[in-house]
Amino acid sequence: MTYSDIVLELINNDDRYIIMTSENRAAFRSLPPLIKNNFVDTGITEQTMIGMAAGLALRGRTPIVHALATFLTMRAFEFIRTDVGIANLPVKIVGAVPGFLSDGNGPTHQAIEDVSIMRGIPNVNVFCPADEDDMITGLKTVFTCPSPFYIRYNTAKAVVEHGKFEIGKAEVFGNGTDVAILVYGFLFGESFKAKQILESKGVSVRLINIRTPKPVDEETILRSVDECRLIVTIEDHFITGGLYSILAEVLLRNRKTAAVLPFALMDKWFKPGMLNDVLNFEGFTAEQIAVKIINQISIDH
Amino acid sequence: MKKQNLLELKQTSMRVREHIIRLSGNGGCFIGASLSCADLIVYLYKEFLNVSKETLNDPERDYFFLSKGHDVPALYGTFVELGWLEKDRLNNHLKTNDFIYWHPNINIPGIEFHSGSLGHNLSVAMGVAMDCKLRKQKNRIVVVVGDGELNEGSMWEALLVASAYKLDNLLVVVDRNQFQANMKTEDLIPLKPLAKKFEAFGCKAKKVNGHNFEKMDELFETFPFEKGKVSVVIAETVRGKGLPSIEKRADRWFVNFKEEEINQLLKELHGAKKTKLTSETIVAR
Does A111 touch chain B (CB under 8 A)? Predict the structure, then answer.
């Protein structure tokens, strides 16, 4: 099943669903002729699209709005906050090519503050699937729940089999106690490989696929803080407002602290290029992640 | 228009103006723009819109959006006159025990959507208009926008899309009072020729005196102005209409009048001489 199949099935079963785009049809090219009235392309107009989505939602529809993550979350930010957030309308905001996935486009196209700004809006939840399978596993729940949601679209090939999806529940791989790696989105794949490298060197790891940074699975995070010696956060996002910040908030709320090693973009945009080269340049390959973690462990002990 | 209706419209709009004036103390309100669109709003609710207290949630009702949300005293005043809102609730203006403040809130019966940030409600109304069309319902969707609001790029972006989707169940009414916050529109960001701008964006635009009920009636009866096109009414109005002491004044955009000024203004509304305003002028933006 693909993203497109899920949208088609939802619309075929329930006329309330309507897919909208500001001319970013790549994810569902074959759909328009099949769904006619439930497909709206507003042209390159993110603000108008979100406003219209709010209006459609007022009439009982559930619009799924699909556009490039950077323009959708930032050009139309105030529309999302004001028309969707304040009214708490069931609009599903799907941001395409988020984070490193914008590879060669350059900083204009780098949505690396999207999690921060979307989760900052009251009522708006956030789903960052690890890969295509994870996205497919979670989409139906996210699309059919009554709250507004931001979804970081991700069709990366899965390296694991994902379990049942529940909003606000993280997915845990392994029960290691040396290191807990917290990750959301596309970098799950590199993190999984890093876990294997670390384990081959005798480091015990648990990998936590956060899935929904909002609402976040506080219980799973706190358990890993209690049971593991080092907490690692990995995200293709600015260091501000993303997973590292979420962890800090969880720790502070619970009067705890931890040894934390963050992998994030440190107040800078990333070097544009082909995806694998970008990962290598910015230090986010599995090998680079594993080496940094091992170094940190040896410093700490 | 029947004489009886005309008389009732005039009397209603007078009472709405009284509500607006009473809301202009104890924290104040945007009086100038509220008075410019009072006649328009009264006309639309009394004569044009197919909506009543009983049909406020009927999916086939007509919709009204006040995109220039700071004029909400005119809207709440009208709701009081329609019997949708208890008059006493206006005393809750700016009190935290109610939802009555400087911009519309959906907890007040009759408010379809909140506004306040300019350039939003047109696209929200378009979503409603599109859904009504998809369901083959006959609702008419009216959006009142400000002329100053037309500075916002999102207005013109939305019109491009509304024209592309041929939303001819949509009626955009511009409260053309010639002012934006602190300046005359033509002195800051000129809009002329405004009708031509709308037509260039695919709409059918017509002008009317926004204080003349008979002229408004003649024009609104012809809606939709052209099949397949968004209808636009440029309602030529006067900022502060009804109170010569504040009419067409840039410095009386937002006011917070004292009780004695309010009492004088209520008399001025009914023909007494100009009020001597002593409270300081406020630049709210």
Answer: no
